[in-house]
Amino acid sequence: MNATPRPRLILLCGLPGSGKTTLAKRLAGAVPAVRLCPDEWMADLGVDLFDEGTRDRLERRFWQHTQELLKLGQAVILEFGFWARSERDEKRLGARVLGVPVELHHLSAPFDELCRRLEARTATGGSGTAPVTREMLEGYVKLFEAPSDEELRLYDAPPPGRRG
């Protein structure tokens, strides 16, 4: 663990069931970093996880809070999914203006594995998770813009001794 945490923005990109929350929790302790997960906050507040208006407002507020934390020297993990390159670019460029390194962790798994994980997650009824059906995931796959190798090169690598 770092003796003196340094500001760093960590973006977790992937479809439901890809392992974003698992990795985020591990990184939050290892970095150390503040982890911001809209699904968990919405569930804790009793908000429907599919309420897109609330999700958009919450993610905008999280981004404002993230910038404040980065200015104070705190590392932050954003667990938004970042399905669109434009979302990833916005956060990367915003952090760069602050002089902060930015990591992008793209998590992926084969479609059938994602379905298996989501079925298992739904069966256990974990807090802060919404049931995602195979049909829903099929639609999500069509919307998801996976980062290219070219895009991945725009981000900083994790510090030595810590790999995502």
UniProtKB/TrEMBL annotation:
Annotated keywords: ATP-binding, Nucleotide-binding
SUPFAM superfamilies for this protein: P-loop containing nucleoside triphosphate hydrolases (SSF52540)
Domain of life from the UniProt record: Bacteria
Gene Ontology molecular function: any one: ATP binding
InterPro entries for the chain: P-loop_NTPase (IPR027417)
Name of the molecule in the record: ATP-binding protein
Organism: Streptomyces muensis
Taxonomic lineage from the root: Bacteria, Bacillati, Actinomycetota, Actinomycetes, Kitasatosporales
